[in-house]
Structure formats: structure tokens, C-alpha cells
Automatic annotation (TrEMBL):
Residues 33-42 have a biased composition (Basic residues). Coiled coil: none annotated. Residues 451-662 form the Helicase C-terminal domain. This is ATP-dependent RNA helicase. RNA helicase. Keywords: ATP-binding, Helicase, Hydrolase, Nucleotide-binding, Ribosome biogenesis, RNA-binding, rRNA processing. Residues 50-59 have a biased composition (Low complexity).
Length: 826
């Protein structure tokens, strides 16, 4: 199957016909001579004809054109003949947004096999109709309960209802607040393990009790922020920490008045919480700056683990001896990112600081005024959407006699409960919110790119009515995110090429101090562009998010995507991202989550976390997964995993035929969508051919995607095996015209030289700004380390002349350079 070699070869009008009209009559030797002369002339003329693209040619283009298969040509003639509307590629369906795309400067005849040689796709037996009734929301606020009934301070309640539009508690809040608010049963208060579905309101479940606990301190005469840090919340990523800090700040804006104090009294507006300052430590600012803020005092601190440990070890003015609360949010991600040892270090550091502070008091060395209840121990709360084995391990090392608090079904009173003790060894299923509509499309590799555009157009059209809706698209690696962001933001569909932008909207002020000092930013400025638009998605803003962007660019992208306070009036937005956005992020109005690449790590759990970015707090949402024909078994597999062994609930993904998707995205009658899709594919391919940078982005993305794909664990290799992928077809998904071999050569030099050396895709690509120690701490997970060990072992083996371990024989399907090379050449 090498049909990909002949795709999209444009035949320009002025290219002489290859048909040789032979001389009639005369001797056969004379006839042959004439025929040869003519043939030579045709070849010379062909060489003189300039390339259809006026852009610098890539090495791949320098090669002679390949011969088109008759079948392909025939097919394209049947399906891709330009029609009256075809220049407006793609014409919109009647209900589509106005996508007036200028006529592309395209050849008069298109030869494309985008719709031929694709494997036959059978839709698995799954509910196909649209009339599957949506279930009642499982993470919505409850009508049957009130915050007052749970013991929340009336001032907090009025702030929640008046300023934050939060009226009723969710199931996890109903379960957690009584436990965390209750007067402590003993000096040794119980630690808590908080578990519930995505988007169920875990953040408020611990923030409200912390604030309510600290509020009474406001009446102490000596209280001010120099009291030091009394509560610490740890989150695995900077984005999450920032998000929690934003919610905390919204809560602390609360202005408290004594009940008998009139609103007119002189100091009625004075906040009693003035001393209750929150701080954020995420490594974006210089250490000196952070130290200065710590010295002043930050009573409630939100931090990433690495930075917190750093200050505990190196900042003597960090006054944390009186810390009463420690929250470990997104515990499963903390474990996945390899923070177990860091957390242990933090706990030791906190204990040590407490001992020192007590000692200083006892020995009269402390300058502090007032008394402090040193008997009261620090309470630890661990939050997680899952109770996987590694999370239980973390609970075992950080919690003392914990209570398990969970909420699974919002509508059942008895399901919100606080168990007597922590469940151990349980393998409970982890399900998305019940109101989430889960879909999948089996997409032949060649059609992936155009199908993605079709799906985005469809979703955007549907959201036009509900302005401001957002769509998140998950991809396998940073290179792929960069490629798709630049491709959609750069393809013109025939418009004159836009001037290259000097820089994006990521202004200098967004850059962190460290980045300004040039310490961690290695990316060229243009790659840090934050926002893009695409003629195929009118009025839609496109963003990207991955760990290799500078902190400034990451936060700017999130801010742009989330929109301002009036999100409802804003343009729809699409965010291309890696798994860095899969946990905890609470972005308003996310209407759909598209898993263009299925998770390489974390399996079904990661799938549920990703789709959990929509359908939050009782709202609706859609999940879409792209499944390759060789991966169809994934659907049953993931349904089974979500269902769990004991659950009676049925979890179904609805299968949508790819033709339906393309038709609803591109419109037209009959198979017109095929021609429109072909034209879009051609426009993308032209963008790749436009210059070397674009071509390199595409090739890098292709190779990095391959590497990412090869890291699916061996337990999933019956579904995801690199051997099952047709490289030529996959190249199409990266708008590459070259066959894999050409990709390799065009990358400059030998394949061996150009393929990333046997490093894990994560190490070489996924989230790492080179030289960033903070990244090392924030993103180096156990799985990654194990994978790197396998890669290193393979490297040693081959260097010693050993035989490469067979693919998938280890935990990870790491292919060595030679192995990958062989596949590429296949
Ligand atoms: N009682 C409530 N009523 C209405 N909305 C709420 C309520 N509690 C929380 N929310 C909103 O629900 C959304 C999700 O909350 P939160 O981020 O705390 O969920 P989560 O359980 O931590 O999710 P994840 O596991 O994905 O991190 C937020 O936008 C929050 O403002």
C-alpha cells in the first residue's frame, strides 16, 4: 500500500500532456526515433515548468514527481471535480457559521486519494441514535441541602450567594463540610481523604472550612499577617495552583461586619480579614521576591510542591511553625508526577519548623506576642478524584487515622457520607459525570486532520447560539500542539500569505522575572504566540497550552481561553493542549472536550480526567474521542474500565460515522463534503510547503507523535501498537505529502541522525523547557523515569551488539531508533 505516494499531485494546465502522439507510417526504427525525441522534449519541458508552489522547495520537492495510480486519478475525477461552489473551499452547510474562505490558488485538477484506500470501518454495536436520554447531573448542587444546615458561617453564606452565585452545596460539600467544620472532637483532629467526581466542587469543600477556622483569630488583638503561614494548599501544577489561589482570593474579598453593626457605621466596610492574606508560590517570580513576601507573612499559601520544599529548606524567614492546615489537592496527579518524596520532605520540613518554633517559645527566645494553642495538631486533607493504589499509598504516609469522605451520586442522601475509616485496597470505578454525552468517531488516519476541522466547525456552529463556549482538544505531545496551533492559525485557504508576526499577544509583562532574565525560556519569541485565528473557524480564537511554554505564555493562554468576566458575550475559543490541562482545571463554559489523541499514560483514568474539564457542577457537556481503525477495541475497553466490576451502571460511548461528521462540518449534498475536505487538506499541505519552518514543524510533530504513541504501556499494546499504524496515511494527518521515507530524508540527512535519539518522547519533547530545573521537579513522574530506564537499557544493549528487545516486551513499547527507522521505511 503506497497510495500515499501519489496523493495530491497537482497537474497544472501548462504541463504538457504525457501522451505521446506517435508518428504514423514509415519504418519502425524511424517511428521509435521520433517517439524517443518527443519523450525527451516532454521531460525537458516538464523540468522547465515552475513548481505549482512559489515557495522555497524542500528537499522532498526536489525529487521527481511520482506516477499517479490510474485508480487514484479516476477516483479523484469522480469525486473531486471542481463544482461551481468548490472554489469557496469549503462551502458551508446551511446551518454552518459563515466561513467565507477565499478561493485558494489551486491547480485546476486535483489528484487526491484522501477518500480511497482507507480501511473499512465497522461501527461497533453501541447506541447510535441521538435520542439517548441525558442522565440527571451527578455533580450538581443539591436542592435538598443548604449551607446553613451544614454549619457554615452566615457571613460566608451571604458572600457565596451574593458575590459568587453559589446557592446550594454539592454532594461532596454536603459530606465534607460537617466533618471539616465541626468543633474538633479532640486535640488530635482527624485527617480527611476527600474523593469525588470531577467538577463536583472539592475546592470549596476544603477552602470554606479553612477560612471559617481562621476567622475567629481576627478578634485577637495582636493578629496581623506576621502571624505567619497557618494553612498551605499544595497543587501539582502552576495552572492549578493559580486557579485555587483565584478562588481563595474571591472568598477573602468577603467583608465581615459584626451582626449588630450597622452598614452606616464608620468602619463597617473595614474587612476583618485584612490580615488574612493569601499568597501564591509557583516559581514564576524570583526567589528573592518570594522570600520578601514570605517574610511579611502569608497566612494562607497556595504552592506547587517543588517551590514549597525549596523555601522550607532555604528561607529562614518562612514563618510556618503554627501551620494548622495542609491540603494536598489532585493527589493522583501529585503521585503521577513523582512528588511522593517531595511531599515527604515538606511534611518533615513543617514538623521541624513547628518543633523549632515551640522550642524558641519554651526557651523565651521568641519575640512573638500573645498565646498560641500549640496542642492543636496540623490537620491534613487529601483530595483526589480516584482512590488508586498510589493515592492510597500517599494517604498512608501523610494522613493519620483518616476519615474517608466521598460523594458519588448527588441525588441520594445516603451516598454522601463520611466513612469510619479509609477504604483500603478498593478498586472502585471512576466515572465521568452522568450528564456528559460521550461520543467517538472511528477515523481513518488519512482523514484525521480534516475530520478534526469538521468536528470543530460542527461544535462551533452549535455553540454560536451559546456565545462564549469553549472547546478543548487534547493532543499527544507539545510538538503536535505547536504544529496544529500554527497550522490552523497560518493556513490561508488562498488569501495572500500574512506577514509573520513579530510576537504574539504574549507581551513582556506576561513573562516571569526568571524568563526575562533568560533563565528558562529557550523558545524563539514567535513560538510563544498566544492567540491565533483560522478562516475555517470564523470568529473563533485559538490557544495552546503545554509545559514547554514559558509560565507567562501558559497563564496568558489560559486567561485568553477562559475569557473575562463576561464570557458569555465573547467569541468561542479552542484550546490545543497536552495532558497538562487534564487535571483540576476549572475553565468556565467548556462545552466539549475532544481527545484527538487518546491518552498514552493513565489509561481510562486519564480519559475521565480529560473529559471532566466539561460537564462541571451540573452543567452539560460533550466528549469526543478520535479512534483509529486499528484502535476500535479501545471503546469496549474504556467502557469496561469506567463501569468497574461491581457497578450496575452502564457507561456507553456513542459511535458517530466519520462521513456524518464530515458532512455536518463541511456541508454539501451527497459526497460533496469529500471534495471540500480534499481542498482543505490541500490548503494545509500548501502551508507545510510554504517554508522550511512550517515543514519542520510538521515533520517534528509527526515524529514526536510516533514517539508518544510508542509509549502506550504494554498492557494496552493490543489496542495501541505502532506496528498497526500506516505511516503514509499518518503523514497525511500532519499535512505531509511525503511518504514516510521522504519525511525521514527531508528532515535533513540520515534518518538515524534526525530521529530523536532514543529518549522518551516526554524527555525530548513533551513538557520540558530545556534547562529548567523547576520543570524537572514539577514534571518528572515515576512512569517517565521507568520509561527512561527502559530506553537507556535498550541503548546499552544495542551498543554492546545485543539484539533489540522485542516491542512491547517491557512495560513500555519503546522502539529504538533502528526499530522506528525500519517502521518508517516500511
Ligand atoms: N455549590 C456549588 N454550586 C454551584 N457551583 C459550584 C458549587 N461548588 C463549586 N461550584 C463550581 O463548580 C466548579 C467545579 O469546582 P471544583 O473545581 O472545585 O471541582 P473539583 O471537584 O475540584 O473538580 P476536579 O476534580 O476536576 O478538580 C467550579 O466552577 C465551582 O465554582
Amino acid at each position: 500500500m503506497d497510495d500515499d505516494l501519489v496523493l495530491n499531485i497537482a497537474t497544472d494546465d501548462h504541463v504538457p500532456s504525457k501522451h505521446i502522439s506517435g508518428k504514423k507510417g514509415g519504418r519502425w526504427t524511424e517511428r521509435l526515433k521520433v517517439k524517443r525525441t518527443l519523450k525527451r522534449k516532454v521531460r525537458t519541458d516538464e523540468k522547465k515548468v515552475p513548481s505549482s508552489s512559489s515557495t522555497p522547495s524542500t528537499p522532498a520537492e526536489d525529487r521527481p514527481r511520482k506516477k499517479a495510480r490510474v485508480e487514484s486519478v479516476q477516483r479523484s475525477k469522480d469525486t473531486a471535480q471542481p463544482t461551481e461552489r468548490s472554489p469557496q473551499a469549503p462551502s458551508k452547510p446551511s446551518n454552518q457559521p459563515k466561513a467565507s474562505v477565499p478561493q485558494p490558488a489551486r491547480p485546476t485538477q486535483i489528484i487526491s486519494s484522501l477518500f480511497s484506500y482507507n480501511p473499512k470501518v465497522d461501527l461497533p454495536a453501541s447506541p447510535q441514535t441521538n435520542d439517548v436520554k441525558p442522565s440527571a447531573p451527578s455533580n450538581a448542587p443539591l436542592d435538598s441541602s443548604t449551607f446553613a444546615g451544614l454549619g457554615l458561617n452566615p457571613l460566608l453564606i451571604s458572600h457565596l450567594t451574593g458575590k459568587m452565585s453559589i446557592q446550594k452545596p454539592t454532594a461532596i460539600q454536603r459530606a465534607a463540610l460537617p466533618v471539616l467544620l465541626s468543633p474538633l472532637p479532640s486535640k488530635a483532629s482527624r485527617d480527611v481523604f476527600l474523593q469525588s467526581q470531577t467538577g463536583s466542587g472539592k475546592t470549596l469543600s476544603y477552602l470554606l472550612p479553612i477560612i471559617q477556622d481562621l476567622l475567629p483569630l481576627s478578634s485577637l488583638s495582636y493578629i496581623d499577617r506576621s502571624i505567619g503561614t497557618l494553612a498551605i494548599i499544595i497543587a501539582p501544577t502552576r495552572e492549578l495552583a493559580k486557579q485555587i489561589s483565584d478562588v481563595l482570593e474571591a472568598l477573602l474579598k468577603m467583608r465581615l461586619r459584626a451582626e449588630d453593626e450597622s452598614a452606616d457605621s464608620a468602619d463597617a466596610s473595614a474587612p476583618m480579614t485584612r490580615w488574612l492574606v493569601s499568597g501564591l508560590l509557583i516559581g514564576g517570580a524570583t526567589r528573592t521576591h518570594e522570600k520578601a513576601r514570605l517574610r511579611k507573612g502569608l497566612p494562607i499559601l497556595v504552592s506547587t510542591p517543588g517551590r514549597l520544599l525549596d523555601h522550607l529548606q532555604n528561607t529562614s524567614s518562612f514563618n510556618v511553625g503554627k501551620c494548622r492546615w495542609l491540603v494536598l489537592d489532585e493527589a493522583d496527579q501529585l503521585m503521577e508526577l513523582g512528588f511522593e518524596e517531595t511531599i515527604k520532605g515538606i511534611i518533615q520540613g513543617l514538623d521541624g519548623r513547628r518543633r523549632l518554633a515551640q522550642q524558641a517559645m519554651a526557651e523565651g527566645r521568641s519575640t512573638e506576642v500573645g498565646t498560641w494553642d500549640w496542642e492543636r495538631r496540623r490537620r491534613t486533607v487529601l483530595c483526589s478524584a480516584t482512590i488508586r493504589e498510589d493515592v492510597q499509598k500517599l494517604a498512608g504516609t501523610t494522613l493519620i487515622e483518616p476519615l474517608m469522605v466521598k460523594a458519588t451520586e448527588a441525588d441520594k442522601e445516603e451516598s454522601s457520607n463520611a466513612d469510619k475509616s479509609l477504604v483500603t485496597g478498593a478498586t472502585e470505578s471512576f466515572t465521568p459525570p452522568s450528564q456528559l454525552a460521550q461520543n467517538f468517531v472511528t477515523v481513518p488516519l488519512k482523514l484525521r486532520l480534516v475530520s478534526l476541522v469538521a468536528l470543530l466547525r460542527k461544535l462551533v456552529t452549535e455553540t454560536q447560539v451559546r456565545k462564549g463556549a469553549k472547546i478543548i482538544v487534547f493532543l499527544s505531545c507539545t510538538d503536535s500542539v505547536d504544529f496544529h496551533f500554527n497550522l490552523l492559525g497560518g493556513s490561508t485557504m488562498g488569501d495572500p500569505e500574512p506577514e509573520p508576526e513579530a510576537s504574539g499577544s504574549d507581551s513582556d509583562e506576561n513573562d516571569s522575572d526568571e524568563e526575562k532574565e533568560g533563565k528558562s525560556s529557550e523558545k524563539p519569541k514567535q513560538l510563544e504566540k498566544v492567540e491565533a485565528t483560522c478562516p475555517l473557524l470564523p470568529d473563533v480564537k485559538i490557544y495552546r497550552l503545554h509545559g514547554s511554554l514559558t509560565t507567562g505564555a501558559r497563564l496568558a493562554a489560559l486567561k485568553g481561553f477562559a475569557g473575562g468576566k463576561k464570557q458569555v458575550q465573547e467569541a468561542p475559543a479552542v484550546l490545543f493542549c497536552t495532558s497538562v490541562a487534564s487535571r483540576g482545571l476549572d475553565l468556565p463554559l467548556v462545552r466539549a472536550v475532544v481527545q484527538y489523541d487518546l491518552p498514552t499514560e493513565g489509561g481510562a483514568t486519564e480519559y475521565v480526567h480529560r473529559v471532566g474539564r466539561t460537564a462541571r457542577a451540573g452543567k452539560g457537556g460533550e466528549a469526543w474521542s478520535f479512534v483509529a481503525p486499528s484502535e476500535v477495541a479501545w471503546v469496549k475497553w474504556v467502557e469496561g474500565k469506567m463501569q468497574g466490576e461491581e457497578s450496575n451502571a452502564t457507561v456507553h460511548l456513542r459511535g458517530v460515522p466519520v462521513e456524518d461528521l464530515l458532512r455536518s462540518g463541511f456541508g454539501g449534498r451527497g459526497s460533496e463534503f469529500e471534495q471540500r475536505a480534499t481542498e482543505i487538506q490541500l490548503a494545509f499541505e500548501r502551508w507545510v510547503l510554504r517554508n522550511k519552518d512550517n515543514a519542520n514543524l510538521a515533520r517534528k510533530a509527526f515524529l514526536s507523535h510516533m514517539r508518544a504513541y510508542s509509549t502506550h504501556p504494554s498492557s494496552e499494546k493490543h489496542i495501541f501498537h505502532i506496528r498497526n499504524l500506516h505511516m503514509g496515511h499518518l503523514a497525511k494527518a500532519f499535512a505531509l505529502r511525503d511518504a514516510p521515507k521522504a519525511v525521514k530524508v527531508a528532515h535533513g540527512g540520515s534518518a538515524k541522525k534526525n530521529l530523536p535519539k532514543t529518549k522518551s518522547h516526554r524527555e525530548s519533547n513533551k513538557e520540558k523547557p530545556a534547562g529548567s530545573k523547576e520543570w524537572e521537579r514539577d514534571h518528572s513522574g515515576d512512569a517517565e523515569r521507568r520509561m527512561q530506564a527502559v530506553v537507556r537499557a535498550q541503548g546499552r544493549l544495542t551498543k554492546q551488539g545485543g539484539v533489540m528487545a522485542s516491542m512491547g516486551a517491557s512495560e513500555f513499547q519503546i522502539s529504538g531508533t533502528a526499530e522506528l527507522e525500519k517502521m518508517l521505511a516500511r
